[in-house]
Amino acid sequence: MNNTPTLSTTTSGLLTGKVAFITGAGRGIGAAAARLFAREGARVLLAARTEVQLKAVAEEIRASGGTADHVVCDLADAASVRAAVDRAVHLYGRLDVAFNNGATGQPPGPMDQLSEADFDLVSAVDFKGPWLAMTAEVAAIRATAGRGAIVNTSSVGSLLGNPQLPAYGAAKRAVNSLTASAAVTYGPEGIRVNAVAPGTTLTEMLHEWDEKSPGTIEQLNRQTPLGRAAAPEEIAQAAAWLLSDRASYVTGTVLRVDGGMHA
User: Fold this and answer.
1) Measured between alpha carbons, how far is 232 from 202 in angstroms, rounded to an integer?
2) pLDDT under 50: residue ranges of the chain
3) DSSP labels for the chain?
4) CA distance 109 to 96
5) Cα–Cα distance between 157 and 174 in angstroms, integer?
6) Active-site residues: which are they?
7) Which domains, ranges and CATH numbers included, belong to the chain?
8) What are 44-57's pLDDT values in tens digits?
9) Partners of 198 in the beta sheet?
10) Could you tell me which residues come within 8 angstroms of residue 59 by beta carbon, excluding any fewer than 6 positions away?
């Protein structure tokens, strides 16, 4: 079986003229999205907690001819989130699209072995964080571009029981519900809201899980019809399409990008 992904190297101006705000943009799917969105014509603002990572990705984008800046943002802090979104408007004069990708993981294992502190952190970042971000983003889109789109990062782990990552799965299932509610609420204003649900994706979070539970990636790949994990850019490609005008009649959906794992 050929386990090498075929990644597109062509661009088509999918996001030309748009201002994009991306959380969790210092690494993994968020960094891949920042690079891709810029190649597709967007001016991007990268947000995350670790400035050194953000700065490196933003400088890489600018060196390649794109327009990018960064802002430090703590998704668990309402004032920090609002300030980050406001920064996009201050820099670029508007906000058109947002990709709420930032998240934190949990120590893998049964929920009775999860500490209350870990549960609270996952809830604050992975559930409350997207709510804070969407609230600020809707206000910014409404006040500037007037119409726009938001994509949240969910997980296929939200779609069924998740014994190894119970708090993470529950938070992502809550994000699915917020996504649907926001789509219904803001659709009449021309603001579309969707989510992507990645399957096994080669991010730092997955590698950390595999280190703590060796063999996890191999086991997940055996459950995946395509027989491999995704590259972060493959998830970013799905998000870019959902944010683009080519998905103009798509809202309220949770798009599985999982190699057929839950087909």
Assistant:
1) 6
2) 1
3) -------------TTTT-EEEEESTTSHHHHHHHHHHHHTT-EEEEEES-HHHHHHHHHHHHHTT-EEEEEE--TT-HHHHHHHHHHHHHHHS---EEEE-------SS-GGGS-HHHHHHHIIIIIIHHHHHHHHHHHHHHHTTSSEEEEEE--GGGSS--SSSHHHHHHHHHHHHHHHHHHHHHGGGTEEEEEEEE-SB-SHHHHHHHHHSTTHHHHHHHTSTT-SPBPHHHHHHHHHHHHSGGGTT--S-EEEESTTTT-
4) 39
5) 12
6) 168
7) 19-257 (3.40.50.720)
8) 999 999 999 999 99
9) 257
10) none
pLDDT digits (tens, 9 = 90+) for 161-214: 999 899 999 999 999 999 999 999 999 999 999 999 999 999 887 788 788 788
In residues, how long is the chain? 263
